[in-house]
Design a protein that fits this description.
single chain, about 210 residues, four-stranded antiparallel sheet, 15 strands
Amino acid sequence: MGDGTYTNPIIHADYSDPDVIRVNDDYYMVASSFTCAPGIPVLHSKDLVNWKIINHVYTELPFDRYKYPAHGQGSWAPSIRYHNGLFYVYFCTPEEGLFAAYTDDPAGKWMLKNILKVSQWEDPCPFWDDNGNAYLVRSKLCGGPAYLHWMTDDGLSLLDNGKIVCWNNEENPVLEGLKMIKRNGWYYILAPAGGVATGWQTVLRSKI
């Protein structure tokens, strides 16, 4: 507003399932693009209020079906993270599986890898521990349960079939949009639950 304040919405557009990270003094945001192309916009900000689109993660998905509109398909709920000088964006499509894109310059070219061809996965998020071990938390189509996978250190291959760390049930229905962080020695998994219209935020934590 020019006086140190701002009004909402800060962006007059639909950025579904946004995820934001800070790297030094810069903020980066990604969001779902579903069947639209180019896919997964990358936005940059210095203050979390003023945002500018600087790139897209991919020009198109490498499947013939996406040459035409595929409603309800495409990239869902991406996660963006920074590790060892590289930016990573992870996402799933309902039918083609788990993808990771990576780059050393979010405004430059992104490399895209289909890590696993599998259906019914959704909303993945990578996590690198202090010792460099890499993990992936994700959900299942229609919300839950929550799975935790072990990955290679570069985050580009899965090393197991995953373990269920939280069931979706009456207490946590529609468990989706998972994010994993570590703070003060505690591991946290955060996930919207209960559905879009009336949902809440579920928080899991562990020391190991």
